[in-house]
## 1
Amino acid sequence: MKPINNSTMDNDELIALVEKMPAFPNSVQRIIQLTSDINSSGKEIVEVIESDPVMTVKILKVINSPFYGLPKKINSIQRAVVYIGMNTIKNLALSVASIGVLNPKNKAGFNTHAFLLHSLTTAAICKKLAERQGVPQADCSDFFVAGLLHDFGKVVFAEFKAEDFRKALQKSAAEQISLHRCESECIGMDHSQAGALLAEKWAFDQLLVDAINHHHASNPHHLLTQCLFAANQISKKMEFGHSGNSIVEEFPPAVDSLFGMGLNELIESWEDLTTLRSEALSFISGT
Amino acid sequence: MKVTFRGVRGSIPTPGPSTLKYGGNTTCIEIRTAVDDLIILDAGTGIHALAQRLDPKLPIQAHIFITHTHWDHIQGLPFFTPIFRPGNQIDIYGGLDPVTGEGIERCMKVQLQYSFFPIREAELKTKLSYHTLLPGKTVTAGTASITPTILNHPVLNFGYRVECDGHSLFFTGDYEPPYNIYQPDEPDHNEYQSHVDAKLAEVAAAMANVDALIVDSSYTDQEYLSKRGWGHGTYRSALTMAAQANAAKLFFTHHEPGRTDQELDRLFQQLREENHDAPFQIEMAREGVEYTF
Ligand SMILES: [Zn+2]
Ligand SMILES: [Zn+2]
């Protein structure tokens, strides 16, 4: 992966900055509520963490660090809870919450609420696609997490490369070119590369790193990447939230043959697709 | 392998007439190998009594393994008197706390401050060496080898498997076996259960076939009803563990501070009657009692 081409920030600096990156306002608020209530349920804590890409990233980063030398990488928050204990996960979430909240009015003009809805619906669709393909239940959460984190690079850009990212967003909208192409031009790296670079640095599961890296690739290989590709396009086509990129890409041959149909057909065959959006919305707007 | 309980009490020391038999000191286990290597599991207040028995004229080499940094497991550390004499070698082992990102050195750094203790760490005569352990990675201490496994508790807690002289022991530290946070009719139930089952299998493998399994058995089933999620096990969960691990002898420890000698005797008798045909022996851990394996 090539480094971000900017004289003022190198990759290590970016990684250090992300440590201090706050999470989304609603989950921060709910974590603070839940951790001040001795009777709060573990389920709710898991639910909040799983609905916030920043919290999820930070917890997976700790649990996958070499200090816990796990035989198998942990992609799911549920498994992290069982492995390291509910209280530790709760305290980790609280320490993320104590950093503050992500500013919804970033200088890049990037709508973080719409972004979150896009990420969450992509996650839910990706998981459903895995179930549809007969992936074992315990592995389906890997698909959810891939959907949740695939665009993580964009929040990082909005937070730390705001000027350049704003240009990329504008160019993509004005010229109807895919955002990742414009990012490469304006930032020297696109969000899938940035996300993959971070995920790799944090020792995430290689399949997850690859899925983030190749979610815009013209010929995605692994099942995880293929489902993610499809989920991302479905979420965009349905206009569930917005990730700063309006271009919907057709399924590449591998994705097409995996589902035995193209994007539009897949959407049409899916009866309760819009309920995924309302479920995701209820997570973000707090219940 | 010689094993002596130096502290068997949970939470807070409980000296007094009602705890004379089982003892009132908090968690500490002394292990001696055939060549007299000294391995200590946890540094509750029981470690002070252990220190009193060491010959002050001889240089001491001690390997102290901390399961977790709750007070009742580290409080005796500043009172382990060999740290005040030059020429001793004290090695302290433990995990990296996921929340603070700090290693086991923190438990001395925090305790040895003027507000809490009259001596600072820098003033100690003996050099302490700290070792951060990785779960599943075996380390050697003298002729013993020790392997940590993460066990569920409100802070990072290592259970330790100790092997020496062809014998083995496993101590859980404080441990509440994980349970499903979802109801059977909730969609996440099955997936969560698969993670729980995988973790329980990992724990059973870590304890497999030990001569001595020493388990946090703080609660009765009745008490546990109102203490779920507090991070401690029950007599029943200990029995299940011993059966799954195929242990030869099970020790119940981390006795509740309010538990009197009389109550422990009564509970023990009841447990013995209920489990007379169990394929392993059971014992209540008792301060000062030594076992040889
Ligand atoms: Zn304890
Ligand atoms: Zn404890």
## 2
Amino acid sequence: MGIDPDTQQTDSRTKLHRFTNHKPLQALLLSIVPGMGQFYNRKFYKGSIFFILFFAFVMAFADFIDMGLWGIVTLGTQVGRDHSLVLIIQGLVTIFLLIMALLFYVINLRDAYKDAEKLKNGFTIPSLKESFHNTYEKTFPYFLIGPGFFLVVFAIILPLAFMLSLAFMNYRLRNAPPAALLDWVGFDNFIQLATVPIWQNTFVSVISWTVIWTLVATTLQIVLALFLAVLVNDKRIKFKKTIRTMLILPWAVPGFVSILIFAAMFNDGFGAINRQIMEPLFNMSIPWLTDVFWTRVAIISIQVWLGFPFVFALFTGVLQSVSNEWYEAADVDGASRWQKFTKITFPHVMFATAPLMIMQYTHNFNNFNIIYLFNEGGPAIRGQNAGGTDILISWVYNLTFSQQNYSMAAAISMIIGLIIGLLAFLQFRRTRSYKEEGEVY
Amino acid sequence: MKKAMFSLGMSIIVVSTLTGCGPDDDAETEISNSDNTVNDNETGEPAKPESLEIWANDDEHQYAAVQELVSQFEDEYGIEVEVTAYLMADQDEAFALDAPGGIGPDVIFQPHDRLGDLTSQNLLAPLEVDEDVLAEYTEEAVTAFTLDGEVYGAPLVMENTALYYNTDLVDSVPETMDELYELADSLTDASHDEYGFLVQALNFYQVYPWIGGYEGYVFSQNEEGNYNIEDIGLDNEGAVQAYEEIQSLFERGILPRSVDEDVINGLFTDGKVAMAVSGPWAMASYSEALGDSLGVAPLPELSNGNTPTPFAGVKGWLVSNYSENTYWASQLALYLSTADAQSYYYEETGEIPARPDATVEDEFAEAFLEQSQSAEPMPNIPEMGQVWDPMEDSLQFNAEGQDPTEILEEAVEEIHEYIEMMN
């Protein structure tokens, strides 16, 4: 494509043949109607296929695309007839279709031009059958991932795009379709989040607790898991299997069940923790569900209990693969127990599991279940519309379901997504396991 | 140069798609709304459709009862009805998606406080019914389903709280609340988990009988029953008095500070609670646990002489605005809530009927019905959704012993702010 056709025409070394006067530019221009350029190149089969595809696409989708573009720009003009949400989805599908059509169009233009150039320079172009064969050989993997790609577009990208568009609209209960039409409001929702007091105050305190929660709960569960895994892996420990099974048990009970049971156990007046442990042993009872600090302590301990077995299982597996010879070599060098741990065990375990550890952090950042099921984000704090243990995601949930402000929820979710995406990206980039082999050192 | 060609081609595409964009505005399609085409000349009724679709609550007994009633309707009217079991709590969302898509049912089953949400999405058609038919239901039930002067549903079931008591511990319920507290005081022994009187004092729904009884209110109502969202009466003298009374129960040790639904249910079924406030939904498990020792009575009168005013919840049949036969859908909804139908439904499911002429031969149900005389329908406007969270928070502060006037003022301010943000 990068060769200027004008210089080609004046090339003196060009031999005389049947297509000397063939003009690639003309082929390109003709292909503005797909297939015509191919006809000009005497490729009649290919030309007809291109033209039929083009014609069929226009026939089948013209109305749909017309509606889709109109819909996503205006979001409907007539209440009752137009349903803004349906129009958005139709508009998004239209955009996908247009991208595909554009791709086809570029291929068509490029094909006409290249073939014409080849003809002009005296090459013969492979027949349709041959070129089909070539393509099939070269692009076989693409054929295989085709259906999967199609699914990805409609099952993952479309809903995401839908959510993203909601963040820029005014979709809330008072003007919910089909009774009303939505409008594009640009960054209005984000501006509100930063400027309207009731959002702004709470946003800051919620996001700081979310960060603390993520760091403390996840780090503790990893540390505990590592400690136990190293301990259980010690040669002197007997009944390894039994101990491992016991330690993995919390993982076997569904989180929903455990959390609800814990919520009952931590009840200030009637829970087992205060009644059977705190009162008889320490002669005091702790306000687990009504004091912000103690609720946070309780919820972090539960998360550590729920979360460590997975990390423990992971570490145990990795520890099996640490070569004994390394420790023997270290012994010969006179290394201490602590040195062996920090120089051999720890780097080795972390090297193998770092991506999964990052996922633990991102998971806890969005760990809706435990926050919501334990205490619904409580206890209440005066002058703030989120509870003391509400993290971003549970706060969004509360606000959307009591406020039914879907656009704001989409906007906050987008912020959550950006934070997580950014952290995950940066961290993954830094871990060795993400790099190609050979780049390790 | 090639770039120029390319952009020329692209602009041709873009221009050709954008010109004459969108739907043809002349061909206005209107949502069919009671303008049924052919009228039967003799009766003045619209032509009968072949079939209707209805969603019943996904509960074994309720579904079976509706199916039985529907088959009677089929015989009588010659219209086929398809009954689908759909969990009541999920119906509204599914309906909001299905109905505009043209695949929704003609009739759904919902509690009345969902009305505001559903009508603001334009999903409901007013019930096509005569005034004298409506007069057969209790007035509360009809007002509960009335919004902006239109009646949207055929009431089937009423719910409100009343007082359960354990006849092993108390013979009968005292006449006044103050006497009840005295009695409760003498029966309470917290160290053995024995309590005289329990109420979910951290739950706004459960505390409302006191607030309303002392002349507090959520939104004021004009004569036509329309709510004024600017006027919230949850921080007036009455509401403060109610909060003070509840707070004193904590201070006297009658109510434990961590009292919640599970605790009350657990202790009451263990026979350790003399009196507890709850709704008909607790009936099955309470009577199973206590048997003949269970009693139900209306809440005794407050110190100002008023009867407490629990929130009334009414569940009933709502007609889809997207139904092509709103007339016949209304007939079906009404048929499913006649006196006979409600008596039958009560017998099969134990749910308290929403009209006084239904047969209820059960002292428990009668106690709930008596209490319902003083019950106030929960506001059915969408703004009600903004009330719960701030009030629930304020009840927690109340239990912690903070100043009721202050916390209620804060809560009301918060509700105003939330309502403002809805628009």
